[in-house]
Amino acid sequence: MILLHPHRRDRAYADDRSDEVMRKTIAFFEAKGKRRLKEDDQGAVWYRDFLDFVASEGIFATMCTPTGYGADDSRWDMWRICEFAEILGFYGLPYWYTWQVTVLGLGPIWMSDNEAVKTKTAALLQDGGVFAFGLSEKEHGADLYSTEVTLTPAGDGTYRANGSKYYIGNGNEAALVSTFGKRADTGEYCFFVVDSQHAAYRVVKNVVHSQNFVSEYALDDYPITDADILSRGDDAWDAALNTVNIGKFNLGWGSIGICTHAFYEAVHHAAHRHLYGMAVTDFPHVRRLFTDAYARLVAMKLVASRAADYMRVASPDDRRYLLYNPVVKMKVTTQGEDVINHLWDVIAAKGFEADTYFDMATRDIRALPKLEGTVHVNIALIVKFMENYFFHPVDLPAVGRRDEAVNDDFLFDQGPTRGLGKIRFHDYARVFKRFDIPNVTVFAEQTEVFKRMLVEATPTEDQQRDTDWLLAVGEIFTLVVYCQLVLENAEIYKIEDDLVDQIFDVAVRDFSRFAVDLNGRAGTTADQSRFCLEMIRRPIRDDERADRIWTDHVYAQRDAYEMPD
Ligand SMILES: Cc1cc2nc3c(=O)[nH]c(=O)nc-3n(C[C@H](O)[C@H](O)[C@H](O)COP(=O)(O)OP(=O)(O)OC[C@H]3O[C@@H](n4cnc5c(N)ncnc54)[C@H](O)[C@@H]3O)c2cc1C
Question: Which atom of ligand 1 lies closest to the CA of 212?
């Protein structure tokens, strides 16, 4: 069973503490119960109880302190971080978010050379502190070049920080807020830490209405010394982007957690609801929607855990993770929206009810693709890799499942963020060839047509400058990378052929949809259009396979899990 089940976890850990963190976190939420979970959500109640729990159990300290700064069992370990993020999403995005922005806030700290701040941070985590990441500003969104927070030299070797940040989670009580700014005199970028309780730190407001405190904060002549500065110049810039690489990856796992809980709730409701003398789950379209939702959800999980393997083996010579990572951020999270849409189409009015988990899911699933630079920013990044991915593969070491209990050192030493166009990949086509499964074959054929289009009707200079056109191309490319990761992990997790075929039944239809979309783009040439039409294919129908997936995987979950009240 690949989906998370709170009472039947099967993720193996090399140490007891990792398992304890997951078990206790689940136990906290199961004891809290759905009624209080919903009351707190509806009342937009700050999650004091959760933060008190993680403080008393030292959970953020264990999970977020790299080796050498905390207790022996503390380390930055993506294998366990994935499941932790999934569990938090499973019980509610707010709990995931307060941890997630803590991760982001810690990024520039652990990446810096400022050993004094790192030692202090480890102690603050031990005391149950949360952290914040002050990057975004009200007027500039994802455009870091326009940052307006400044550090002005005071003439005595110290600085005064001024300006405000917007959309900053935990900004109300973070022990340290990693803040991105510029030197007022030289324009040099810098990252520095401020204390949210300092008199010169002003919480202006919470810009959202939810359990989260997504703050606007202002620095009013906040005194900064060199001891508060984490990084300068290119290092500060790289720390911003490299932190996003580590932290925003968790968006995918938040999405997986939300979809998994919503799936259990939806299939339970539909299977027990009778209309016209039959169960709702007897309708063929309902079965199809549930089966598609399930196939998408399994694929999301295979992709996100496979991408984590590549993060764990990353090095200056192997930066493949820089492609797989935005694929998780953009594609896993938008697939999450599709899953919820399918489920909601089935359970309809039930999804609005105040006492369901589902009604939170319908709202929160939308947030994940938008919380980081939006889908467009990520696709624009992803297409930079397309040429090397398709046309210049190289031999690189094979990567297995990376579940070892080690600190992921490289993530805090990723180095310069430049040179993305130079990153090379292993031959994606090899894994497709290893699967003799009908819909995998159709998908591989669609991919070949897409590649031929790139060679024989090569995008023009104008098209490459047209982000609208590139986004349509990028959707297809992203789907290919996504499916490569699905297959690689299907091998590792020994996913049965039926399920792989079902996942690719969905993928073939998605490919065709994206081909229609590209075909309809104003900038697409007549030559390219012919290729687009050739990419449109039907999945290979297999009713017996679909029945087996429905019976053994989907309907089988109808009474699997209900959150206690
Ligand atoms: C609930 C919530 C919590 C958040 N928490 C934090 C936090 O803790 N810390 C923090 O620093 N930020 C946080 N953010 C900010 C978040 O990271 C921003 O939403 C994100 O940076 C995008 O900015 P924006 O939404 O203002 O979009 P904008 O930057 O205004 O972008 C608008 C549109 O422009 C286009 N666009 C912009 N840049 C590009 C590009 N490079 N390539 C292609 N298209 C582009 C896209 O189409 C995009 O949709 C949070 C936001 C929310 C809503």
Answer: 1
